[in-house]
Amino acid sequence: MTDSCIFCKIVSKEASADIVYQDPQATAFRDLHPVAPTHILIVPNRHIESVGVLEVEEEPLMGHLFTVARRLAEEEGIAKGGYRLITNTGADGGQTVFHLHVHLIGGQRMRYPMG
Ligand code: DGP
Questions:
Q1: Span from the CA of 40 to the centroid of ligand 1 (angstroms)
Q2: What is the pLDDT of residues 72-82, one digit of tens each?
Q3: For domain 6-106, which CATH number applies: 3.30.428.10, 3.90.280.10, 3.40.50.1000, 3.30.465.10?
Q4: 85 has which bridge partners?
Q5: Ligand 1 pocket, 100 CB below 6 A?
Q6: pTM for the whole thing?
């Protein structure tokens, strides 16, 4: 838990968000500024700044984020049509919140890259 981290506060429910899934390892909530009909952020409950500081020990946790994404895509009804998973890393990667997260984006046909 990092005091200044908004995603840590959402995980601990100190800050409000539309949480769609939570378990002991991960939390998923709707993005404040959705870019598509489905836009959910999946985060580890524990504060990890970005992919840039990942250790080998975190490999199971990272896999878990992806299976949570897969299950949420099914629940959202976008699994058949397809969806996009994005993890921005560092300033040049477009990361603005420095608590690692996977964007689950779908519900429309997407171009590449997005911007
Ligand atoms: P990134 O640019 O990859 O670091 O994505 C950060 C995303 O987090 C961005 O799409 C907007 C979203 N976001 C920022 N602050 C909040 C917040 O307080 N609540 C929610 N639900 N989403 C937030």
A1: 10
A2: 999 999 999 99
A3: 3.30.428.10
A4: 104
A5: no
A6: 0.97
